[in-house]
Design brief:
This protein is mainly alpha-helical. The protein has one domain. Helices cover about 75% and strands about 0% of the residues. Helix 3 packs antiparallel against helix 11 and helix 12 runs parallel beside helix 15.
């Protein structure tokens, strides 16, 4: 891989002060806004889901509308395990991630032979088919009523799940921090450099002796496993799982959050998901039917004028300000 500009690629994924500030702010929100911990937990879960999708789209160039399949599979797996008597939240989260990762590994070699619009349409169809199958499988999924009566043991046997959401918030933040650290290592590794080379020019990577499909399948499996982990956290935090986790709307929301924050940066997920979720929450309170009138113009402005999403726009503004200084 000496032909790739590895130094410049790796330098883009080094730790920066902004990521540490984000973590400090996330901890600060725990103490400052105790009445919004449920919303905060939902934001952290979606950040994790967007991170899993960024590995596919941002670093591997895989545009999919079926990511909700793995999120939903992880959510339902955690629910099924709880109802079956397996109530340890950490173990259930790992098993849910393994189930989603296995499903992605089985589907990946077939789906990833496609690219562009064909891949987009096939994954869209897959998401719709899985949703309809889950809707009809009422004895397994609960149908429109979802899975109720889901309960989990205290985290590590010490921290009980309370109504205030304190445990679920810190629990989700711990998982998110761990996954973020691991993904930073992955995208800065030789494997991550190969993925970015495939994203830029898959034909050239084949000529250089790299096997494109196996690398994409591994990336797809990791992304599916992390989406399943996010789904398990969703079930554990809400003690309930419904069909919405498998919906096409979930896949579209993830794509919008990633574009809003910035594709292919990892840090973009830290910005896009919170901005989208918070705006959606308060705009829905203002108008349950017209909340997209708030998010829509912001997304249009970012796409038209903000190269690299909100994160890229912020970097451009800071760079121009520095150049303007005497």
């Amino acid at each position: 891989m000496t032909a790739l500009p590895a130094n410049s690629i790796l330098s883009r994924h080094r730790w920066n002060a902004g990521e540490l500030v984000w973590l400090v702010c996330a901890l600060g929100c725990f103490f400052t806004f105790p009445e919004y911990l449920a919303l905060g937990t939902a934001v952290l879960v979606m950040v994790l889901l967007v991170l899993s999708y960024d590995l596919l789209l941002g670093f591997s160039g895989v545009l999919s509308l079926g990511h909700a399949v793995y999120f939903g599979l992880g959510a339902f797996t955690a629910g099924w395990l709880s109802l079956a008597g397996w109530k340890d939240p950490v173990l259930d989260a790992l098993l849910a991630a393994a189930a989603s990762g296995l499903a992605a590994a089985l589907l990946g070699p077939f789906l990833l032979r496609l690219t562009g619009l064909p891949l987009l349409m096939v994954t869209l169809a897959l998401c719709v088919l899985v949703f309809e199958a889950a809707h009809l499988a009422t004895p397994i999924t609960g149908g429109d009523d979802g899975l109720s009566g889901v309960q989990f043991a205290p985290v590590l046997g010490l921290f009980d799940w309370g109504l205030g959401g304190r445990t679920s918030y810190l629990y989700s933040l711990a998982w998110l921090t761990l996954v973020y650290v691991l993904l930073k290592r992955v995208v800065a590794s030789p494997f991550g450099v190969i993925l970015q080379g495939i994203r830029e020019n898959p034909k050239r990577m084949r000529l250089m002796g790299n096997r494109v499909l196996p690398h994409l399948t591994i990336s797809y499996s990791i992304g599916g496993a992390l989406a399943g982990l996010a789904g398990a956290l969703f079930t554990e935090a809400n003690a309930f799982v419904g069909l919405g986790v498998l919906s096409l709307e979930t896949s579209i929301d993830v794509l919008v959050m990633l574009v809003l924050g910035g594709v292919g940066t990892l840090s973009g997920a830290l910005i896009g998901a919170p901005v989208y979720m918070v705006l959606k929450h308060f705009a829905s309170q203002w108008s349950p039917f017209y909340w997209m009138l708030v998010i829509g113009p912001l997304l249009i402005a970012v796409v038209l004028f903000g190269r690299g999403g909100l994160l890229g726009s912020a970097r451009t503004i800071v760079a121009r300000w520095r150049r303007a200084q005497p």
